[in-house]
Amino acid sequence: MKREPVRILVVDDDRQNGEFLQEQLATEECKVIWHSDPRQALQQVRRGMFQVGILDLKMPHMSGVELFHKLREKDKEIGLIILTGYPSVDSALVTLKTGAYDYLKKPYRIADLKSIVNRLLEDKGVFLETEQVMNLRIGERIKEFRIKRNWTIAKLATQTNLSKSLISQIENAKNSASLFSLAKIARSLNVRLTDLVQDL
To answer: Which residues does 77 contact at the CB level (< 8 Å), separation at least 6?
Structure first.
């Protein structure tokens, strides 16, 4: 029996960012609902309806902090991720840290947000074993091993004879790495190939 898709709520009055997140996070296994008006989002939420909520902190009609607490009242189980482009709200973030799963400052990398969403879902016992998720995890591991060696992408490219562009795309999950490329990367980083792909 096919599992019900994960439902992600995005609340951001910035149309460009809202539509971008809808496009980037939606998959066969994830349905993304975007609202520009926090009041409309609040009306739609029922207990258990959404697994993930991604909220912008600074919005008209209702602040992100107020929306955060109202969502918590409606559904204590929803995992909330906060987005903010305003350093002045650091004090608000302190109050949210205990209840929010994580937060990102704008501008953010979509790969970082996807990683947070996937971690949140895994903590809830939901595993999205899609090619995209596997690519994301492989990219994160390569970057982690590269940074441990204090190597730049350019250095790794030189060591592997792969292009900087390809390595960057693999690290950011924009390209599926071939087994041949992964083997070259693992050898150059002095790790086993299984270190890059284990637990996938």
So the answer is: 47, 48, 124
All domains in the chain, ordered by first residue: 6-123 (3.40.50.2300), 131-197 (1.10.260.40)
Write down the pTM of the prediction: 0.64
Which residues make Cβ contacts (< 8 Å) with residue 83, sequence separation at least 6?
A: 12, 17, 54, 55, 56, 57, 103, 104, 105, 106, 108
d(CA 74, CA 42): 9
Between CA 85 and CA 193 the distance in angstroms is 39
User: Do the Cβ atoms of 104 and 112 come closer than 8 Å?
Assistant: yes
Closest CA to 187 of 159, 165, 166, 168: 159
Amino acid 108 reads: Y
Q: What is the CA radius of gyration of the chain?
A: 19
Digit-coded pLDDT (tens) for 90-121: 656 665 666 888 888 888 888 889 889 988 98
The one-letter code for the residue type at 4 is: E
Helix (H) or strand (E) holding 176: none
In eight-state DSSP terms, residue 177 is P
